[in-house]
Amino acid sequence: MDDRKYWPRTSEELAEDPIPVSFINQPVPPDNVGVLVPHRQRSLHAIVAQNLADVEALMGRLELGVGIADSGRPLVRDLYVQCRKQREVLAVVLRLELE
Asked: How far apart are the two ends of the chain, measured CA to CA in Å?
């Protein structure tokens, strides 16, 4: 039925389905899912701001702790250090763009 999702349904099909699936009663996507308008390019400011939010979220997750073997600890530490540097750069870029 997924291939005919956007085709009109017959009255018999509607009568057979106790809870008809339509665009209106589909579940709302989670907060981390954004809708991009096709053929419309996002501004540089929006992209940098989103990247800053993503880096801060990753840093927050790393600060909560990561279960990894001892051999991977230096890699996770390097990842955290690079995230801090990237956060600083992205914050500076956002300030420059607003001025």
From this structure: 53
The three-state DSSP-derived secondary structure of 11-60 is HHHHHHCCCCCCCCCCCCCCCCCCCCCCCCCCCHHHHHHHHHHHHHHHHH
State the DSSP H helix or E strand holding residue 2, giving kind and residue range, or none if neither: none
pLDDT digits (tens, 9 = 90+) for 1-19: 566 666 777 778 777 877 7
Please tell me the distance from the alpha carbon of residue 84 to that of residue 90, in angstroms, as a whole number: 10
Counting Cα atoms < 13 Å in the Cβ hemisphere of 75 gives 7
Query: Which portions of the chain are predicted below pLDDT 70?
Result: 1-6, 20-26, 35-39, 97-99
**Alpha carbon distances (Å) from 19 to 1, 11, 14, 34, 77:** 14, 14, 9, 27, 50
Dihedrals φ, ψ of 57, to 5°? -65, -40
For 60, the domain range is 2-98
Total domain count for the chain?
1
